[in-house]
Amino acid sequence: MKQISVLIIDDSEIDRYVLKRQLNEVGVVDIFESDDGSSALEFLENYEENCKIYNKKFPPVVIFLDINMPIIGGFEFLDKFAELRNRLALKSCVIMMYSSSERAEDREKASSFDFVKDYMTKGEINTQELRAKIEAL
């Protein structure tokens, strides 16, 4: 697998840990983490500085995004990211929703953004499926 950078945005430390382990198992080692949409947007705004600080490839190719978070939730993040993506030329960066919500409305709303490439339900994805989804990007 080609080396990529990812950003996990999830307020649950346990869910971030589980996803990070799965990503490591499929060969992803450049992983950034954020516990809410607000700090993730700030992180992306300053990506050139963060590239130097963390000495990692940047910007992330894939962002794993939870929906229900404090401060700025997933859908509000998507709205703000759409503008940021154009302004900062982050066109190669895509979103994979990573949520406990199985609601059809949430899936539909997420898929209305052209840069959202997948919707995964927490606890239902295994390492092989994750590898296939990342390789398909």
Automatic annotation (TrEMBL):
Domain Response regulatory: 5-137
One Pfam family it belongs to: Response_reg
GO biological processes: phosphorelay signal transduction system
UniProt-listed SUPFAM superfamilies: CheY-like
Residue numbers carrying 4-aspartylphosphate: D66
Keyword Phosphoprotein applies: yes
Keywords per UniProt: Phosphoprotein
UniProt name for this protein: Response regulator receiver protein
